[in-house]
Amino acid sequence: xxxxxxxxxxxxxxxxxxxxxxxxxxxxxxxxxxxxxxxxxxxxxxxxxxxxxxxxxxxxxxxxxxxxxxxxxxxxxxxxxxxxxxxxxxxxxxxxxxxxxxxxxxxxxxxxxxxxxxxxxxxxxxxxxxxxxxxxxxxxxxxxxxxxxxxxxxxxxxxxxxxxxxxxxxxxxxxxxxxxxxxxxxxxxx
Length: 190
What we know:
Layout (H helix, E strand, L loop, with lengths): L1 E2 L4 E2 H10 L6 H5 L1 E4 L10 E5 L12 H10 L9 E5 L8 H13 L4 E3 L2 H14 L10 E5 L7 H12 L5 E6 L2 E7 L6
Parallel strand pairs: 3-7, 4-5, 5-6, 7-8
Antiparallel strand pairs: 1-2, 8-9
Pfam family, one: DUF2480
Protein name: DUF2480 family protein
Organism: Taishania pollutisoli
């Protein structure tokens, strides 16, 4: 009945309250652990070192000049970042030239790779995944989120499965409402 004094519809409110059921989060209650691969995305800046910039006339690496550059270069500019090292020139660069740069970066704890920016990102993704403690995922039923904000998604998913399959009971791909089974431990393995 409508109460003209308070302006409320008590009968409508009562009817709604009587018909409402508790909303249950079935995914949460299922024990499924959903993982978003974006959690493994490198959050640091990436820097490039192109050895071609140190070549004499774009052709030859002079060891004396190169070692002087290594000594004078401000390596602190790469702190809190990661570095990919390459040579954009067609010149033949001795392996020790790359090793010397990696050595300087390693002294400062800066992750680096001789290769491309994409290879650097993959290396960091793999490292982040492998740092996950598997003990907390023992016998877990896991879902790898289908849409993640991460480059090299196929690589990240493959590394995820390779690492977590050691502990998980099952791994699925997608969203809880629509998953694709990827791995299920056989009963023999249990």
